[in-house]
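Sat 14:20. Reprocessing the chain from the morning session after the first attempt stalled halfway. Input below, unchanged.
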Amino acid sequence: MPDEVIDVWMQQPNEIFMAQPWLEPLLRWTGMSLLAPPLSATLDAMDEAGVRMGLLSAWHSPSGVLISNDEVAAIVATHPDRFAGIAAVDLADPVRAVRDIRRCARDLGFVGVRVVPWLWNLPPNDRRYYPIFVTCVEEDVPFCTQIGHTGPLRPSEPGRPIPYLDEVLLDFPELVVVGGHVGYPWMAEVLSLASKYPNFHIDTSAYVVHRLPAELIEFMRGRGRTRVLFGSNYPMLGAGTCLKRLGELQLGPEARELYLGGNARRVFRLPI
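Finished this time. C-alpha cells:
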C-alpha cells in the first residue's frame, strides 16, 4: 500500500511573497522561478509526491500581510479535501492577533497558527507572543514556528531553542508547539526539548530527508517516532524532492507511517 503523506509546511505564494528581498538566497539555491506557481501546479506536485493533504500557511511580516488568512481560506474552500489552513498574525497588534486566531479557528476551520521568528527578529519568549499562546491553547490549535538557522539573510538567533522555546514551554505546558526546519545547528537543544516536553514536536521542512542530522534520524526510529512530522516548505522545496531517498532513513513501518502522516493527523486533529 503506498504511503499517504501529509505535508505540514506549504505555501501557495502570491506576487507579494515572491518579491520579498529575503527570499533571494533561496531562489538562487533552488533555481526556483520568481513567478508564483499556479494552484494547478501545486496540486500536480502533490499528486506526484503522494501528498494527500497540505497545510497551507499564511504569512504576516512587520511590513504587512504577505499571504493573507483569507487568501488561504479561499484555497482551502475550493479544495477542502487537499488543504487545511495555518493562520498568520501581526505580532505588533496583539488584540487583533487574538481576534484573527479566533476567527480563523472558529469560522474558517484553520488548524494552527504560525509565526516565523527571524521574520520579526523576535524570539518566541518575547512578550508580544504571549497573547497568541494563550489563544492557541484556548482554541486548541498548535503554535507552529521555525527553529534553527535561517536560509534568508536574517539573524538566526531568534530560532535558537534554548533559552527561548524552553521558557515558552515551561510557561505554557498545555501549548502544542511544532518547530519547523529541524533546528540545525542546535540539534542537542532541539532533542533535549523534545525529551523534556511532551507537547513539543519537530517538522523536517526545508530538508531533503537524506540530509537530516543523524541524531534526529535516530530519534525518529525510536523514542521520538511520535514527535517528528514531515514538511516540505513548498514551493521552495517540494515533497517529491524531499522524500526521494526516504528508504535511506531505514524507518520501521510504524515510524514511517507516523512520520509521513500519522503524527500530523493527531497533532493537528485532521479529519482524514
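DSSP finds twelve helices and ten strands in the chain.
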